[in-house]
Structures are given as structure tokens and as C-alpha cells.
From TrEMBL:
PANTHER family: LIPOPROTEIN LPRI. Gene3D superfamilies: 2.40.128.200. InterPro entries: Lysozyme_Inhibitor_LprI, MliC, MliC_sf. Keywords: Lipoprotein, Membrane, Palmitate, Signal. Residues 141-208 form the C-type lysozyme inhibitor domain. It comes from Shewanella colwelliana (Alteromonas colwelliana). This is C-type lysozyme inhibitor domain-containing protein. Residues 1-27 form the signal peptide. SUPFAM superfamilies: YdhA-like (SSF141488).
Length: 216
């Protein structure tokens, strides 16, 4: 499975660089608590437990995945510190749901790659939502030439890059996608494609595309 191993190594390089930015932006958090320790090939949990799932055992046996687990643990710790005033408190419950989804990678034909991608998306989500990395914005886009039709966007220096967009009462986290031109971001049912201050934004399943201009 050379291709899967190469893919995981690429993810590790991207996420490790993003975590270093996260550490630098958190002056009140000791650096030695947040930087990934590449010499430690064990995950954040005990591998000798008899109750491990098959995916948890795979992580224990795969140094690259174990490192990803420790990196997520560091990011989750930073997010927890930021979320202590959340009402209602949702971070812990969401993390438990994410773990269940990660463990469902046993159904995948390429289990290791599935696990790595799950870690990558969760790290990006937490870093953006809790502002753990450098960001730019907010930027305001007026859509379909209507002053009341506005999308507010903040960009985050995650790996891969991401954004959080607000439109009316709804919010979407989008992650960058390969694009021949401009910058393209995809969320669950939303998409933003920006080029030279103009953006095509789709908001919602099968929703019409909006033509938007970035305001000065």
C-alpha cells in the first residue's frame, strides 16, 4: 500500500506545519505541550487495552496514524480551553461522535487512508472554529447586487486552507479544493469559488449560484 503511505506522509507534513502556526499563536500555552513529538510512535490512548476497536488497533500499529492521533489530541486540548464558556457545551459530545465516525473506517477498502483523512478534516475543523491558527478577514461579499444579500467570510491558515462563511443565520466551514484558477472551497452543501475579488457562491443543496463581489 505504498500510495496510501505516501498520502499519509503528505498529510503529516501539512498538518504538522499548521500545528506549528497554532502553537505560535497561543502565547499562553507552553510550546512543549502542543508541538508533535515525532519520536513518540504511540497514540494519545493506551494501546494495551482489551477494548480497542480494530481501527484503534490499526492506529497503534501505524506510527504515522499514531502521530496524527497525538496531533489531534493537542489541537483538541487547545480547543477545549477556548470552549470552556460554551453554552451548551458541545465540543466533548462532538468529539465522541467523531471518534465513532473514525472507527467506522473499518468499512473502507483503504482503512489507513480513511483514518488519515478523518484526522485531517477534524484538525482543520477545530483549528478554524476555535481560531487556533492565523486568519484573515472578515471579508464581505455582496451577492446578486443586493445590499441585504451578504456573505461574510473569514479565511484560516489551516492545512489545507479553510474558511468559515456566514450567510443569514447559517454558518458553513469550507475546505480548499484543487482548482485550475482562483480559490475554490467546499462545505457540506455550500461552495465558494473566488477569483480576483469576485466569487461564485452556492449555499444549500441544489441552490442557485450567486454572483458576489468583495466589498472594499
Amino acid at each position: 500500500m505504498l500510495d496510501a503511505a505516501t498520502s499519509i506522509r503528505h498529510l503529516l507534513l501539512l498538518i504538522a506545519s499548521s500545528l506549528l502556526l497554532s502553537c505560535a499563536s497561543q502565547a499562553d500555552v507552553p510550546r512543549n505541550n502542543t508541538q508533535p513529538n515525532q519520536a513518540d510512535a504511540s497514540p494519545s490512548y493506551h494501546c494495551d487495552s482489551a477494548s480497542l476497536s480494530s481501527i484503534e488497533s490499526l492506529i497503534c500499529q501505524t506510527p504515522q496514524l499514531a502521530m496524527l492521533d497525538r496531533q489531534l489530541a493537542d489541537v483538541y486540548s487547545l480547543a477545549t480551553a477556548k470552549a470552556h464558556n460554551e453554552h451548551p457545551p458541545v465540543l466533548k459530545a462532538e468529539q465522541q461522535g467523531w471518534i465513532k465516525g473514525r472507527n467506522d473506517c473499518w468499512k473502507s477498502d483503504d482503512k489507513a487512508n480513511c483514518v488519515a483523512l478523518n484526522y485531517q478534516s477534524r484538525i482543520v475543523e477545530l483549528q478554524a472554529r476555535y481560531r487556533l491558527v492565523e486568519s484573515s478577514g472578515p471579508f464581505y461579499y455582496r451577492c446578486d447586487n443586493q445590499a441585504a444579500n451578504e456573505v461574510v467570510v473569514t479565511y484560516f491558515n489551516t492545512a489545507p486552507t479553510s474558511l468559515i462563511a456566514e450567510y443569514g443565520d447559517s454558518v458553513s466551514l469550507m475546505v480548499s479544493q484543487p482548482s485550475a484558477s482562483g480559490a475554490k472551497y467546499q462545505g457540506q452543501n455550500e461552495q465558494l469559488w473566488e477569483h480576483h475579488g469576485e466569487a461564485l457562491i452556492t449555499w444549500g443543496y441544489q441552490a442557485p449560484q450567486m454572483k458576489c463581489i468583495k466589498l472594499d
